[in-house]
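Agenda item 2: L-homoserine complex prediction
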Amino acid sequence: MQKIAVLGYGVVGSGTVEVFYKNKDNLEKKAGEELDIKYILDLRDFPDSPYADKFVKDFNVILNDPEVRVVTEVIGGIKPSYDFVKSSLLAGKSVVTSNKELVAKKGAELLKIAHDNHVNFFFEASVGGGIPIIKPIHACLEANEIDAIAGILNGTTNFILTKMFREGMSFDEALKIAQQLGYAERDPSADVEGADACRKICILASLAFGRHVYPENVHTEGITNVTLADVEYMDSFDAKIKLIGCARREENNEISIGVFPAVIKDESQLSGVSDVFNAILVRGDATGDVVFYGKGAGKLPTASAVVSDIVSAVKHNETSRSLGWSDSEQSFIRSFDEFTCANYVRLKAGNIDVTKAVIKALFGDVKYLSSNKKEENELAFVTDVMKEKDAVSALEKVSDGAEILGRIRVLDY
Ligand code: HSE
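Presented output:
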């Protein structure tokens, strides 16, 4: 009999316990032995819960119980999760977590501690909710060098963008529903301003490229500057606007990486991904593009990934050799100034003909877009691929009474 502890009984923790007991017989068959959750750690009381006898408030009860072989951390954040996870690994217990902030900030260190103590540190649920993506990258695509990863990595913002621009709902109302459905972070600014997607692309890039990418080194923008006016132009370009996290291999063993709203053409598999769904495109040098799709947030989808990691942790007595990366100084992350992509730009012209001449001088030949709802003297266009620093510099030089109203990068995934 393998005993498990669950740290945290919030949305993901309660979902984990629910899925575990619902599918226990099947899980035991897969694990090849009996399993049980011995403890649930939470500071709150749950006297009416069918699992009331399992609740403890003191982590040391779990840490000092040699029967507990797998600790499941679903509290989120760094404090106290980091201390709990680290001491569990040092005590020879495998750890399963859904905590993307923890993996993005401390993953290299925790993977090393797991390795040194012959246990596992698994985090399938940290990216993409219920979508299998961590194991596919390290255990199914290992024949490939990964050239690029790009994904819709945050369910809350994809849900908000869908509700706002497809159904005309206000931002605040859409966010409130996302919170009620258990999609949003405790502090939803982490969703809206891109930090959550940033943590996830850091985890994927670290895994794909073998060196830890720390979130503070990643250019990150959220969805707050995406307007209905921009969305209205997308029909004429056969495209959608999505919050994308992307990382790609560059020359000299460098990578480029960023999180920002992006124009995605309709022929891309990422373009039709709506509501809470996430999709992650992995471009391998042998396989070409592979896309993983599913619910990126929510109680049961996330619990699905947590519980399957629990079974994996029970089955694997030795540390996984393929799941991991090393700590690294960060000079392999290319400055975002060098990032290359096309750009969608919307501006208010002083005089249309003069401004078109200025645009041609600064950006060369561009493709003008149309919108039924365009304002008087408004122009929207898409440039050729150019470096970020050149795009910024050209936008600063737009003159003669013209005013930039919006700029969104265009990606070709
Ligand atoms: N707040 C996150 C999201 C939860 O909306 O994607 C899943 O990581």
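Discussion summary: The chain has a mean pLDDT of 97.
Owner for follow-up: CH.
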